[in-house]
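The instructor's notes for this session suggest beginning with a concrete chain rather than abstract definitions. Hand out the sequence below and ask the class to guess, before any prediction is shown, which regions might be ordered.
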Amino acid sequence: MSGTIVKSTSPVVPRWARKSTLVLAIAALALAVFGTTTQGWLTVHLDPAQLGAAVSSQDGLHVQGSKAATTVTALALVALAGGLAASIAGRIARWIITALILLAAAGIVGAAVLVLADPAAAAQGSIAAATGISGSDVQVDVTVFPVLAVVAGVLLGLSALLIIPAGRFWRSRTKYDTAATAAAGGAAAPAGPTDEIDSWDRLSRGDDPT
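After discussion, reveal the predicted structure:
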């Protein structure tokens, strides 16, 4: 008896297009951006008399990223939620999610670049909260974390752009796809409520529904 060789018609999914790989990359980058906002982005050097007893005059006033660029934290969470939602979204929804993640990434990069361009202005809110004085001329040092936020934001946007081409390799989990798959494989789809109603109508007319 000769055996039958069945060849798979499923396309080979490239490694970059795997759903788990892409979703994990977007989530990791979004978390990386969020993590930078918990660190000090700026160090403000003020007169010891202005700093007060609560702040060390040697270390200066440390400004976290969440205070220097308040929108970055929220945008990182939006990108994280979008990446997770893309794993279960349909084709149209993936376009919308991609646009949202791209906008979030652009906002992250833009906010971090503004801090790098004018760190003194970004620190004014924290200076006023610590000293009660605003608009003072101070020396502000920038740490590496705003730069890391820019890099992570750019990579986040590039990863979002891969959702659309990678989505062609992702299998949908809708009932319509399941029925189409069963029909292509020669298996009959289970009878639904509409089929049962049609059978009863044919029986009432004296016809044999079989």
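Then share the key points. Residues 115 and 122 are 6 Å apart (CA to CA). The first strand starts at residue 40 and ends at 45.
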